[in-house]
Amino acid sequence: MKKSQRMQILIDLAKRKEDAAAQQLARDKAKVNYDEQKLNELKEYAKQYESERNLLGLSAYLTTNYQHFVDRVQQAIVQQEGAVGRSEQQAEMSMRRWSQARSKTKSMDWLKEKNVKAELAVEAKQEQRQSDEFAMRRFLDASR
After folding, report:
1. Where would you find the membrane-spanning parts of this chain (predicted)?
2. What count of Cα atoms within 13 Å lies in the side-chain half-sphere of residue 45?
3. Where residue 54 falls among pLDDT bands split at 50, 70, 90?
């Protein structure tokens, strides 16, 4: 088996790893989008309740309960911001893994192509040598 053929096996394995890293990256980016959407919904929800509180004439007791509710929504926002940050970090790590896998695959492809060119050059030399030998034999046979 030629070196370039052996390299192709390694390239195929590297490509599978690269594809797996790309799929993980896509899942992580989708998670970031989902978490950001959830955060935006929570912020919109808090904003809506805050504006409604100002419009409603609530008693002191209801205002306190209302404020506790708004505070819990704010806590949920803080937690969701943390979730977004963690999702973004995970996506960034996945991006680095994919980038490294892609780089490795490209390097292996380049090395394989280099080996293919070297193999073709060796084959061309062998063919030329065989052709030269054949021509020399015909010449020697013709001169006898």
Report:
1. none
2. 15
3. low
